[in-house]
From TrEMBL:
The keyword Transport applies. This is TRAP transporter small permease protein. The chain crosses the membrane at residues 18-40, 52-71, 92-114, 134-153. It is found in: Cell inner membrane. It is a multi-pass membrane protein. InterPro entries: DctQ, TRAP_DctQ. Pfam families: DctQ.
Length: 189
């Protein structure tokens, strides 16, 4: 079972690392726009659309990676002092009450949203003569799928922790250390 968890973690990590490169592209586009706007006095209307689209893709496709690295926001100060079983029970409840309904809705609505955008070959309406945005809307259900897959893995982790009393080991590059350091400094290990 641990091999399956690590496989999905690796997939989420690879996707996160791949889409992290959009930051480089986004930075290049913004630098280009600043140069053309302020040095050449020739702004480009497509840059706003491009930056908006690239940031959206980065944000969506990094979701599963962030979940795999245990990086989503939570009250770590209080949460970190709970016993692992209690953490797992709390996480399991929250996955089923909030996470899965939200991600299933995102995936379903995102598929419909993307399908309609492809059907009409949707163009951006933010700027005149905006670029096509229908290819980028396909990332919405895709991101939802990867989040669902990683969510299933996290639920399995919760069940394993409830059963064993300890969290199953994550890949080395996704270990949480801040709470452990805090506990060690307070002598609560």
């Amino acid at each position: 079972m641990l091999a399956f968890l690590h496989l999905v973690d690796k997939i989420s990590t690879k996707i996160g690392h791949l889409f992290a490169w959009t930051i480089v592209l986004l930075t290049g586009i913004i630098v280009y726009e600043v140069f053309t706007r302020y040095v050449l006095n020739s702004p480009n209307p497509w840059v706003f659309d491009a930056s908006y689209i690239l940031y959206g893709i980065l944000f969506m496709m990094a979701g599963a990676y962030t979940l795999a690295t245990n990086g989503h926001v939570r009250g770590d100060i209080l949460y970190g002092f709970l016993e692992p079983r209690t953490q797992a029970i709390l996480d399991l409840i929250l996955y089923f009450v909030f996470f899965f309904p939200g991600i299933i809705a995102l995936t379903y609505a995102g598929y419909t949203f993307a399908d309609e955008a492809w059907a009409i070959k949707e163009m951006s309406s933010i700027t005149a003569d905006g670029p096509p945005i229908y290819p980028f809307k396909a990332f919405i259900p895709l991101a939802g799928f990867f989040l669902l897959l990683q969510g299933v893995v996290e639920v399995i982790r919760c069940i394993m922790c409830i059963k064993d009393g300890a969290w199953p080991k994550r890949e080395d590059d996704v270990e949480e250390v801040d709470v452990e350091k805090l506990k060690a400094s307070l002598g609560k290990n």
